[in-house]
Amino acid sequence: TAKADKSGVTRFFEPAMDTRFRKRHVLQQELRLAIARNEFVLHYQPIAKIDGSIVGFEALVRWHHPERGIVQPSEFIPLAEETGLVAPIGEWVLREACREAASWDKPLQIAVNASAVQLKHGNFAALVESVVQRSGLSARRLEIEITEGVLLTDSAVALRNLHQLKEIGVNIAMDDFGTGYSSLSYLQSFPFDKIKIDRSFVANLPGNAQSAAIVRAVIGLGHGLNLPIIAEGVETHKQLAFLAREGCDEIQGYLIGRPEAIESYRMLTGKSQKRKSKAKRNSTQAA
Ligand code: C2E
Ligand code: MG
Ligand code: MG
Ligand code: MG
Hints:
This protein is an alpha/beta fold.
């Protein structure tokens, strides 16, 4: 039964109900407010060629919760996907990442995660196009990483969005390959430009024979399809050496750099004076 308390907030749960559900409900309401309150921030993790040279960054969202501190995406993206909030959150992430990357001196890649839920919205590609245009970023510098929250197969809308994105020059990467729903049939149905091997396969390299065989096979598969392969979660020199030997194209992981506020990577991105003052104006407006 729903009850409105004195503050006017409707409470759907009686005290006796499962606290897990109550927590979830609170989190959902707070998540709804988080966008308006400007509580999200982006961290950026470098992406490197196999020789270690930096080719771009992946934007990863964090939630600066007023009481809980930093909340990681694994704790709120699944809920955001279920409630539809992933669309407005994702739109903010896209705007912020494109604005940031457009301000760099170096024309590095910027990778932005998009949930399969977003991809099922009819206007997703149009949104990306308008955000890219407004930011002044060249569409070629943007890469959308599709993460698997829901099954994409048989979604004509998702397919149309992906083709539209490719038409405007945006790259599409398949994230977390080998886990969840992300499957071989996707590679056949969707126009991906890159495959990211999930870090669960990289973690046990090179010692674990199963992981080694899987990673080797995925690299072979990618190259057979003419798709570059990027390995996530590279933490050790031994992992890197294995990946280099097997012909992996790019790497990402703590060995190269952790996700950090972009200020930590200014030496790599550069930032021109002119852009800096523009970015300052924007952040003043937002505040
Ligand atoms: P992902 O896109 O596969 O991102 C890689 C995750 O692995 C990140 O976790 C990153 O911090 C972590 N990672 C990178 N290198 C290493 C390493 O060497 N070792 C270990 N142990 N971990 C490493 P994070 O930032 O917690 O993000 C988790 C997931 O949340 C992301 O996985 C992505 O699926 C999702 N996510 C993050 N930001 C967004 C977003 O803006 N929108 C959507 N839809 N999803 C997002
Ligand atoms: Mg990703
Ligand atoms: Mg991934
Ligand atoms: Mg992942």
